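Fold this complex.
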Amino acid sequence: MSETYQPRAVSQAPYAAAQGGDDAGSPFNDYFVEQDGVRFAGTHLIVDLWGAKRLDDMAFIENVLRDCVDASGATLLHIHLHHFTENNGVSGVAVLAESHISIHSWPEHGYAAMDVFMCGETEPHRAVEVLRAAFRPERIEIGEHRRGAMA
Amino acid sequence: MSETYQPRAVSQAPYAAAQGGDDAGSPFNDYFVEQDGVRFAGTHLIVDLWGAKRLDDMAFIENVLRDCVDASGATLLHIHLHHFTENNGVSGVAVLAESHISIHSWPEHGYAAMDVFMCGETEPHRAVEVLRAAFRPERIEIGEHRRGAMA
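Structure:
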């Protein structure tokens, strides 16, 4: 089945090594990033999946979250998932050294509300590709916030 | 000190009792809400605090998150906080029956990136008042998303 998503199969590019270091003068890495002359804390993607599959499968969802972390070059600190008995929906949060990824799913509507919020030298958009491959949504809406922009 | 924030001192109004039930025909409570003719999963507040205090105090922050949950009429399922040694920043997530509240703080910048995402018959804006009283930010920016709008 070529369409089947294989958790843990995402390769991780050595992204950090390809990034320029612009914090050389700082006493520590505060995970702020700089793009287009704007210094900000991180990128927060608001991801809504519609017509998505396997939103009731907690073990699968946990693997997908872990794959998102790996694909983005982030560091997992803590993961917690909760399965609701009423509708088999799942709420899950992965706390990262670089912020968090969260999911809240309504399998009966094929809907999941997800957040991918990452600071530092990570690639949050790679997580979206993992989500697309894993949940195969008919439609995906992505909003993007630069959190903590310092001008 | 009248300015001192007293954790756990927030009174909780019996909000649920004051809400009309519009899910009477549903087989279960799926936590979707309806406002202005739009049915949606929940309200997601993107809250940025600047010039905020006590962003390095993990025990305080945990109490504040718990107060946010109480004030909003939400139900806490799980709470996890992490203290970073490099800058004393704190990352914390409260997983709720109604979604989540999160914080990522940079005490050295007086900055915290917070999310208050709540579904069902809750009052997420009450959490913002708790945050304002607790962290006494000089400036607060609030973005609002209606997640999962079904038209």
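Confidence is low (pLDDT under 50) at residues 8-27 of chain A.
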